Inverse folding.
């Protein structure tokens, strides 16, 4: 995997590591803004600083440094999406990458805390409603980004810490209906297939197939990506992989899980 590093001169650069043994790193969870995210190519060429997405890179790099982490990862610019093999590998590895992160920072672009509020955690009244309505809770990919990492911290657009998935557990439960035990890190295999499916039911993705692909890590399965196959065929392939996994485990669980 590639990680971002900010050397002493302040310029960000990509460094490649063996996926099996990367150094400690932070990871970003966010929602994309069309035409405003810095791509792998732009980062390589040293361009894209005028995009609003570059603020996320600065934010994540700064937070990582303050937490004593030299490296960090952001999906928009650490993956060469023009390479279909790399993209497929990355999506199938995504859950594990979030799971291994020392810190996951959730950057909420639609939550702003007033500048005069120095301690946002102490005054949730100033941001609680925006937090509940945040687009981040409606997207398919952010489900695994909430569940996989052991440490998830939420931040406003202006970089104020709102709390963690543990301190905000009850609020997150009300928004997502995800069991608190899952938020605390209990193995997802201990939750039924139907319950895990329900967590994603109301979430959306830009591409139809991604509504299925974003569940791969939730079920611990791997699939080659076939964009253009449609949600229905992708769902059938996911069911087949889950069935194989269950047969291998000898559970005998039923698979009448999708509508």
């Amino acid at each position: 995997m590639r990680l971002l590093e900010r050397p002493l001169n302040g310029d960000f650069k990509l460094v490649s590591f063996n996926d099996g043994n990367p150094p400690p790193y932070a990871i970003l969870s966010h929602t994309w803004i069309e035409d405003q995210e810095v791509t792998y190519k732009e980062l390589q060429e040293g361009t894209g600083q005028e995009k609003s997405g570059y603020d996320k890179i600065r934010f994540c790099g700064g937070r990582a440094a303050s937490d004593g982490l030299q490296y960090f990862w952001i999906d928009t610019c650490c993956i060469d999406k023009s390479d279909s093999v790399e993209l497929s590998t990355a999506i199938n590895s995504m859950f594990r990458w979030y799971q291994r992160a020392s810190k996951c920072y959730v950057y909420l672009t639609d939550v702003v805390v007033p500048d005069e509020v120095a301690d946002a955690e102490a005054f949730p009244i100033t941001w609680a409603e925006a937090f509940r309505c945040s687009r981040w809770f409606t997207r398919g990919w952010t489900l695994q980004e909430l569940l996989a990492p052991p440490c998830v911290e939420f931040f406003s657009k202006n970089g104020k810490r709102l709390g963690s998935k543990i301190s905000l557990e009850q609020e997150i439960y009300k928004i997502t209906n995800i069991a608190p035990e899952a938020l605390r890190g209990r193995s997802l295999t201990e939750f039924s297939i139907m319950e895990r499916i329900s967590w994603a039911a109301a979430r959306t993705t830009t591409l139809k197939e991604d509504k299925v692909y974003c569940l791969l890590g939730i079920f611990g399965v791997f699939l080659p990506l076939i964009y253009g196959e449609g949600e229905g065929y992708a769902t059938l392939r996911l069911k087949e992989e889950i069935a194989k996994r269950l047969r291998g485990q000898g559970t005998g669980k039923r698979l009448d899980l999708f509508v």
Observations:
- The longest helix spans residues 230-249.
- The mean pLDDT is 93.
- The radius of gyration is 18 Å.
- The longest strand covers residues 103-108.
